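so my prof wants the structure for this chain in the tokens format not the other one, which i didnt know existed until like an hour ago. anyway here's the sequence
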Amino acid sequence: MSRIGKKNIHLPQNTNIEIIENNVNITGPKGKLSYKLPEVIRIKHNIKNQTLSLYKTHENKEAQKLYGLSRTLVNNMIIGVYKGFEKKLNIQGVGYRSQLQGKNLILNVGYSHPIIIEPPEDITIEVENNINITIKGIKKEKVGEIAAQIRRIRPPEPYKGKGIRYLNEKINIKVGKAGK
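here's what i got, hopefully its the right format
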């Protein structure tokens, strides 16, 4: 049974929330996001202590499933418009590098051609030292999806560890075949 849905969501300063029936609109310093709550979930805004609380209209399995999910999605929206989200990737391998051309990311990771990635409008990509990539945005889901898409181009291989990996990702290196 989910206990996540029972937790109150704290609203930081400079963050405004507008609730119209089941639509939640959140505006903050980084942007604006909206979400339509399921029919079985309702939201209540406590203006006095700047908190949000969710509650179920029915006590059934479907409502219980959506209870914790809805709370987490609304909380991630608030964090996104207030602080934003970021994922960091690291490129390892001889001759592997990345660069920005306008907003597009260009990867040279051992293929016969460079790979060009065009980020969506609300995602920004930064490159440091040609090997460190930072993906930033206000939607956690989109930031993670773009990071996974970039990593999928050349995942780290298990013998030398060459490839694109998340920062601080641990790769189990295998032992090569035994020589004579």
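also thought this was worth mentioning. The chain is about 20% helix and 40% strand.
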